[in-house]
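Hi support team,

I've been running sequence recovery on a batch of backbones for a student project. Most finish fine, but this one hangs at about 90% for roughly twenty minutes before it completes. I'm not sure whether the input is malformed or the queue is just slow. I've pasted the structure tokens below so you can try to reproduce it. Let me know if you need the job ID as well.

Thanks,
M.K.
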């Protein structure tokens, strides 16, 4: 099989009987999309990052958001840096994820703040930086490995975003989860499980669109 041969949902390793089948089916697809993401040139990466910030700038979802959760890209993820700078320029509060003991919280990230290496070697704000409740974010710029047009999301496999935003459906005002992606990360279908939190919107180098109940 060549590195980028399409992976079907049935090509998982059936010897692993620790995880439910849907969970195992995600692995080969995750591996393949991550390799494709890492193979992008820095020029392609910069083009997507700029295009995403441009789409955000002209969308009401972003314009009206005051508290915005972002992330610092690694492994070929869509780079949030231009979007973070845009937030700061427009006076929005920016937060970054911090993982600890299987949970994810968000701490404020202001211009010039020092960062440190945290869980999974991601850069995170220092402990002195104030945290902000996840469920009170207006907008969550969400990293992803793969997505469908309808807003299903494949992440890194830790379940952090699923768990963190699992209970928000009961709220009148809930954070908008906006997936950031290179358009090649779009797939026809994903082996989703009941715990998977759907995206409310997706933005790529090409466009921003609303999914699911927010459409
Ligand atoms: N930039 C960035 N920051 C982020 C995330 C992210 O996706 N991107 N996260 C989003 O949640 C959290 C970290 N989540 C992680 C989840 C899993 C693995 C991990 O080690 N995954 C396994 C693959 C598991 C599998 O395929 O089943 C690996 O890489 O070997 C790493 C980080 C918080 N910060
Ligand atoms: N709401 C939840 N409650 C309990 N466990 C959960 C919940 N959501 C996800 N999990 C667990 O997290 C694990 C990883 O889930 P999944 O493969 O969907 O992660 P992911 O969305 O790809 O990762 P991430 O959000 O970290 O990028 C699964 O074993 C799943 O059982």
């Amino acid at each position: 099989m060549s590195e980028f041969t399409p992976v079907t949902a049935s090509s998982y390793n059936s010897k692993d009987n620790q995880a439910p089948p849907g969970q195992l089916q995600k692995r080969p697809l995750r591996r393949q999309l991550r390799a494709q993401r890492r193979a992008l040139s820095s020029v392609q990466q910069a083009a997507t990052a700029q295009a995403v910030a441009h789409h955000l700038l002209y969308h009401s979802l972003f314009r009206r958001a005051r508290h915005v959760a972002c992330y610092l890209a690694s492994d070929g993820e869509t780079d949030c840096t231009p979007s973070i700078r845009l937030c700061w320029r427009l006076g929005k509060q920016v937060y970054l994820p911090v993982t600890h003991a299987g949970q994810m919280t968000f701490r404020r990230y202001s211009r010039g703040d020092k960062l440190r290496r945290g869980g999974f070697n991601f850069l995170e704000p220092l402990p002195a930086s104030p945290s902000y409740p996840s469920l009170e974010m207006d907008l969550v710029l969400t990293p992803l490995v793969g997505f469908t047009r309808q807003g299903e999301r494949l992440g890194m496999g830790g379940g952090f975003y699923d768990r963190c935003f699992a209970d928000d459906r009961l709220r009148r005002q809930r954070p908008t989860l906006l997936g950031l992606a290179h358009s090649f990360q779009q797939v026809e279908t994903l082996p989703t499980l009941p715990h998977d939190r759907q995206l409310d919107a997706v933005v790529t180098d090409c466009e921003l669109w609303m999914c699911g109940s927010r459409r």
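--
Follow-up from support: It reproduced on our side and the slowdown came from queue contention, not your input. The pocket of FFO (ligand 1) is lined by residues 27, 30, 71-74, 77, 97, 99, 104, 120, 122, 143, 155-158, 160-161 (CB under 6 Å). No action needed from you.
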